[in-house]
Amino acid sequence: MSRAAQAAAQAAARNRARVVLEHIEKADGGDGDGDGDDARGAEGARADAPGKRRRSGASEDAEGGERDEDGDARGRAGAGRGDGASSSNASRREGARTGVTEDELATMLGQEMSVEERAEAINTLLREKKIDVFGRGGGLVYARVREAQAAKFKGLSTEDMLVYQIIQHAGNAGMWTKELKQRSNLPVPQITKIFKTLEARKLIKSVKHVAQQNRKVYMLYELEPSREITGGAWYTEQEYDAEFISVLREQCVKFIYSRERVTLKEVSDFVRASELSRIDLGQDEVLQIVNTLVYDGKVDEIKDESQDDGMGKADEDFQPITFYTRAALPVPESNAYTDIPCGVCPVINECRPDGLINPSSCEYMTAWLNF
Known about the structure:
Blueprint: H1 3-28, H2 57-60, H3 85-91, E1 100-101, H4 102-109, H5 115-127, E2 131-136, E3 139-144, H6 147-153, H7 158-170, E4 175-176, H8 177-184, H9 188-200, E5 204-208, E6 216-220, H10 227-230, E7 235-236, E8 239-240, H11 242-257, E9 262-263, H12 264-274, H13 283-295, E10 299-304, E11 321-326, H14 363-370
Antiparallel strand pairs: 1-3, 2-3, 4-6, 5-6, 7-8, 9-11, 10-11
Helix pairs in contact: 1-5, 7-9, 11-13, 12-13
């Protein structure tokens, strides 16, 4: 093919891509700034590096689309469907954007272009990050990408997009370097460099794992880390907040002692109303605090089964009401038996009446007897 013919073919391809984009923009409508409208999945639609086989949640949701050697999706009139449909669903609320379905787009274009030409145009727009593709109702929907969001991805390489898409699929559980290396098949130095690039653009962020301080996990910039990572309400900046828990325990004891008996909901309402916590504590967190009081012998847990008369057939759905009250037999903080020095003496095996270490000259035994 001559240069003139190649130039004409390229111009025709660009024109078809422009026409497809115009139809998508017209159908999408609005300013494209709907809630949850981050252009994510489709930006990674071309993220497969040549010669590398990708394994991510997005690729696993491909709807039968076949890929050529360059990684292009050549499914029915919707190339690029496999790389981003699933991961885009995970981060998008359905209905946040109108978009245009695959069938609607085919109807709009009519006889203007063939299925192959339409697929090529869609691949071009995906590659240029001008449109997004996501699943809805078992089909594919195309929507334009916001300019501000598209600017964040401008200039990123296919490897950059691959790492971004894998991190996106991990959600708020995050992804750490070793696992990402296994999934992307990229060397660690390159992954580290990609991390810096994506963090600089505020596409991802690193978060320290509360259980493993040496480990950083990476997730999308706008996501809140899961409680498994942050430690939940009992940790502040990855540090166990013992003082906060102590205050909370003390106030819960006072509240329970001030009533004859209380339910967990009443304790939770008290904690919420007293604004003891900077964050909203649910009943599960309050239950953890109350349970520590039960284990310490400060509070008794009572199951009230009075509503079950036991006369009829056993009701499997019956749940007794749990009450908490002041402990009838509170466990003392300490006593003479728990404080006896011999129980924790590291040299007790060497202690004997005629030995260098003996009970008669033991200062700890003398202090205990005086107590």
